[in-house]
């Protein structure tokens, strides 16, 4: 039997209408009254005594662009709100900390880069975070404080190269590891480096085996297959794609992998980015007002059977939650296990090179001496 319960929705417009600046982020409001009626339904799938039910939330909210401390403050308010409603796992959008530079071209054309574009990259680089680093420590502390498993999209700074990265934390406040986007899309390749096979983790936790692929990585069948082979059960898909066609990909992955899919996207208006001329949406700036929606969200939670449990939401900033009956995974795998009984390894196989790659390797004389003594 299915029961329908109201979702937890929190909209940022309240803060703005009350004159609060974007630095304060999103004003969190109480759950809807019974008379308001839900904007969308969360489905309690039901469970039995042998299956675990996990309360999961995807966050649909905007970065406070170029202001990482304020973005972390906002993340904590959102995390606290999700935890207050019983969430055990919370997933944030792609590039939530550091920002997704939608509409920017960083002054690049073939054969030329502008001084303004280079300065824009300097500011973007300054808003990124080191991993490990103080911001990672703070995120870990948040996860421990609110007793939730946290999946957070960040822009990672490694020297002077940036990566679009997802960080994982457990409910005890421990940093588990990261996934770096292995294939940035289109203009993203100008500003982000490429991850390698060493950061495609799936973490075994009491709430399920958790992994992540970012945005259009989810359209890479071999990457998905690697994650399925690692046993992913809760497949997190932070994204910047708000198109309706994105929903088809999320449903397909849930069915293909026999896993829960949790996709989190930002909901942004033009006013969530710095005003021109500091920040310009190339080719569209003249058509935008401060209230223009530049990313419409579409965050969603889908079951292994392809049922939409919550979302997609295109209305505003929101916390979108559902109860995940992990017993549904076994029921789905009975029909189709892509790396199990439905595979044909004697015909089709995949090799994943999961060692870290480095452009420079140092072999010191002292290390050679120590090795020779050991032998």
From TrEMBL:
List the residue ranges forming a coiled coil, or say none: none
**GO annotation terms (biological process):** cyanide catabolic process; detoxification of nitrogen compound
Please state what the protein is called. Answer: 3-cyanoalanine hydratase
List, as start-end ranges, the regions of compositional bias called Basic and acidic residues.
Answer: 13-22
Which superkingdom does the taxonomy of this entry point to? Eukaryota
**Residues in domain CN hydrolase?**
54-326
Renumbered residue ranges of the record's region Disordered? 1-22
Query: What keywords tag this UniProt record?
Result: Hydrolase
| Residues annotated as the enzyme's active site | 94 (proton acceptor)
Q: Its Enzyme Commission number?
A: 3.5.5.4, 4.2.1.65
- Matching InterPro entries, A to Z? C-N_Hydrolase, C-N_Hydrolase_sf, Nitrilase/CN_hydratase_CS, Nitrilases_CHs
Query: What reaction is this protein's catalytic activity?
Result: 3-cyano-L-alanine + 2 H2O = L-aspartate + NH4(+); L-asparagine = 3-cyano-L-alanine + H2O
Positions of transmembrane segments? none
The terms under GO molecular function for this entry are: 3-cyanoalanine hydratase activity; cyanoalanine nitrilase activity; nitrile hydratase activity
* Span of the signal peptide: none
> Member of which family?
Belongs to the carbon-nitrogen hydrolase superfamily. Nitrilase family.
